[in-house]
Amino acid sequence: MDDTITASRAETAARDAYLDLLKRCLTRYSGSDIFLGAPLQKPRWATDDTTTLRDLEEGRYAHQDADTMVGWLRLDNIRACVESVLREQIPGDLVETGVWRGGTCMYMRGILRAWGETERKVWVADSFAGFPEPDLERYPADRQFTGPLAEQSLADVPYSHSIGLTEVRRRFASYDLLDEQVEFLEGYFRDTIPTAPIGQIAVLRLDGDLYESTDVVLRNLYDKLSVGGYCIIDDFSLPPCVKAVEDFRAERGITEPLEKIDWGSVFWRKTSA
For residue 201, what are the β-bridge partners? Predict the structure, then answer.
């Protein structure tokens, strides 16, 4: 057998093994009904008998010490999108806006490392101090996140509290993924995203929950997304986020179809400038 073919297969196998292990470590989920260590974090409406393996894979529940809330399906989508732009040499960095403990960004960085990509950066954007007070005058759709209604949304998720930048950096470092290819943007999106020193983008992933957060990111970063790049919406189960995405797509005449990832997340590929 040709040595080049053998080496290529070995490299692919090593890459797959590393990224599979990283996915399992980030979620603290082994692929069985046995979790590593501490119990699951669940919304208050959940009961033990509602948990299935599919729920775990879809990220409906998360291990309380997991580095990411998202399940395997969303991480698989991230890998597919990133590897697609690497194979096709679509220019640009990888960006996530709204990162919690940073797990999905760690996965992005791990994919770049596994592919030997040394030029692209991963941008980690978050307030690292929780959600901003909704600006209902400009974004009335965010009323869901105020007062008693908040009990039905963000406040109903026990692990939605803010995670500081120091903790996120520590978790990156624990995987040996904290280096010069990782850039942090600290602050509310309304303050940081419009002037962020981000150039071309190959993968743009939004996880800001609110209409405002979604709108600010799309209006300021979507034009930087390369043709052939991917836009991923994590919160397509939240009405304010859904409305912001639909409003932006309608205003801009974006017709690329939304592709479903799981119960609450979608993406599309940008096919024209």
Answer: 93, 225
